[in-house]
Write a structure and sequence with these properties.
alpha+beta; 16 strands; 10 helices
Length: 390
């Protein structure tokens, strides 16, 4: 096993800490338990080793400020190259809430209306665009709005290529239920770009990345990332490379670092850049979630297991109630990439985890419980089965 081969040198490179982080920093969990830097590090290192996760970057946020940022393990196992807090990592679907935040700035300015039907924005019917000819004959797309698309409530599958037909089909009545959909986010992007003539790449740069000082974050791969970027690894430690995107995709083309995305997350927690009304709307439940599992979206099995935590979806963010008040969260997943962001709004605490491993999600529950407090995380719905329960 590749993880056995590198075990002897793993912890030689295990921790790379930004200079601004004091080794004696204490993070106070939502339940009041104080964590020393040593306790945080030992928890992360133990779980990484047990869960066979080669590289992981962590940020903890308190009262709207980044309190602790650290990187552990490898950016590249083959080169024995250490992961650092400014190492560029593939964000995957963490792109979606950043896009939703940008859209809400447009809502604040009256540029877009969340409830205006998508056909009202486009110069010609959606089913006349090359990527959406599959929708011809099904008029239900005419009721879609940005609110539906951003809350995964438009009745679409995640991606068309996961279906037997390989065609884009509306699988549920729009507005009737939650079904996670990257396709829907791409239609939202089309609406802005084609319907309003906006440049999503430029808007993300100006309203998100520049605003929060995210200097090593981009919707496209940049060559200046090359000296310090992370490669992804599968469950057995096979090198999968880096998903260097060449096309701007609101559903998931972003590259970022743990320091950069933590700055954005802290900004969302503080409410920076949005009116109070826009932030509240973004983090208000738009649709209740009754599906037993998040994926596959097109074959849901309903359950009442998550009614107690009021599992739902806002605009770009998942929502649930914790013992410490309301939480918002988002996952980011691809082969060789597992990311997770969780914020406790009332408690003013966040945890951000970026990993370059398909094994990363196997330690997310234990990391979140240990470092931010036991939140009743909907791990089974998210598919975050702990490594020792598989």
């Amino acid at each position: 096993m590749r993880f056995t081969i590198v075990a002897s040198i793993f912890f030689l490179y295990a921790c790379t800490e930004i200079p601004e982080t004091n080794p004696d920093t204490r993070f106070i969990r939502a339940d009041g338990i104080a964590l020393t830097a040593d306790r945080i590090d030992s928890t992360v290192e133990r779980l990484m080793q047990a869960g066979r996760v080669p590289g992981l970057a962590l940020a903890l946020i308190s009262n709207g400020e980044v309190s602790y940022v650290k990187a552990y393990g490898f950016a590249d196992i083959d080169e024995a190259r250490a992961l650092q807090t400014d190492t560029v990592m593939y964000a995957a679907s963490l792109t979606k809430p950043a896009f939703a935040y940008m859209v809400m700035t447009l809502v604040d300015e009256g540029v877009v209306d969340l409830d205006r039907p998508i056909p009202d924005y486009l110069p010609r019917p959606l089913d006349q665009y090359e990527d959406y000819v599959d929708l011809a004959g099904d008029p239900r797309w005419r009721v879609w709005t940005l609110r539906m698309l951003l809350s995964h409530n438009a009745g679409l599958p995640n991606w068309r290529w996961f279906s037997d037909s390989q065609k884009l089909e509306i699988i549920f009545e729009p507005g009737s239920r939650y079904a996670y959909s990257g396709e829907g986010i791409q239609i939202a992007q089309l609406t802005l770009e084609v319907g309003l003539g906006l440049d999503v790449d430029a808007l993300m740069q100006e309203r998100v990345f520049d605003k929060f000082g995210m200097r090593r974050t981009s919707m496209l791969w940049r060559e200046d990332f090359r000296p310090n970027f992370a490669r992804g690894f599968d469950e057995e430690g096979k090198n999968l490379g880096h998903n260097a995107r060449q096309t701007v995709r609101a559903a998931g083309s972003m590259d970022t670092t743990v320091s950069d995305f933590a700055a954005f997350l802290a900004g969302v927690l503080r409410g920076d850049g949005l009116t109070q009304a826009a932030r509240a709307e973004m983090l208000t439940a738009q649709v209740q979630i009754t599906a037993r599992h998040q994926f596959p979206s097109q074959f849901p099995v309903d359950t009442d297991a998550n009614l107690g935590i009021q599992l739902s979806y806002g605009l770009g963010w998942g929502l649930f109630e914790t013992p410490f008040g309301p939480a918002f969260f988002k996952e980011g997943h691809d082969d060789g990439t597992n990311n997770y962001a969780l914020c406790l709004d009332a408690a003013q605490r966040c945890i951000l985890i970026l990993s370059n491993s398909s094994n990363g999600e196997g330690i997310f529950l234990y990391l979140a419980d240990a470092l931010i407090g036991e939140t009743d995380l909907p791990w089974e719905w998210e598919g975050y089965v702990p490594y020792d329960r598989k």
